[in-house]
Amino acid sequence: MSFPETKEKLPPKIRRDLDRVKEMLKPCIQCGTCSASCPNAEFMDLTPRQMWRMVLMDQVESLYASHSFTMCSACYWCTLRCPRGLELTRAMGELKQVGARLKLEASKHSDLFYRLFLDNIRQYGRVREMELMGRYFWGLKNPITPISYAPLGLAMMRRGKIKPELPGHGPGKLDALFEAAGKREGK
Fold first, then answer.
1. CB under 8 Å, gap of 24 or more: what pairs does 140-144 form?
2. How many domains does the chain have?
3. Is residue 47 part of a domain?
4. What's the pTM value of the predicted model, to 2 decimals?
5. Number of C-beta neighbours around residue 57 at 10 A
């Protein structure tokens, strides 16, 4: 999906979510502590400080054209070090959720991984890495991507860090827990 030209053309719920994030960020003094604290900032095309400024200036189209918000690992360093005590990790999470609901290109791969990761946990009660990555690579529909990860996978198998396992079938071990959480979230 492409991003609408103006914020007003967004669905009302998404506009409300973006307005809520903007309200959370209003006290930001643009000091840059969040960017200096971020372990992933060097991999982002926009620093966290720049992203907050874009939200405050309603430049959400430019924000979602970036891949930066998908790079956040939710480590909470920005939140812990913010001199204003802003919940920056929560704001980033909200931006990720909006991106997922808009089905934007920038968040497609991380959304796929997140969904498959939760499905894996739901099914087995833990992560089965081989199956997770196999399904992820299958979902990417790009035969070159798994080849680039093959040396890492083989090294991990040699060291006993991952083991090939056949996919399981049947009801998931954590179905009841996921259903209860879905009810609490109103899903």
1. 140/109, 140/112
2. 2
3. yes
4. 0.68
5. 11
Q: Which domain holds residue 126?
A: 108-184
Q: 124 and 148, same structural domain?
A: yes
160 within a domain of the structure (yes/no): yes
Whether 128 maps to a domain, the answer reads yes
Sign of CA dihedral 24, 30, 60, 98: negative
End-to-end CA distance of the chain: 23
Question: Strand runs (DSSP E) across 66-173, as ranges?
Answer: none
Given the structure tokens 């833990």, which residue do they identify?
Answer: 126
Answer whether residue 173 is part of any domain: yes
pLDDT digits (tens, 9 = 90+) for 135-158: 999 998 888 988 988 898 899 889
Q: Give the pLDDT confidence of 48-65 residue by residue, as tens digits.
A: 999 999 999 988 888 888
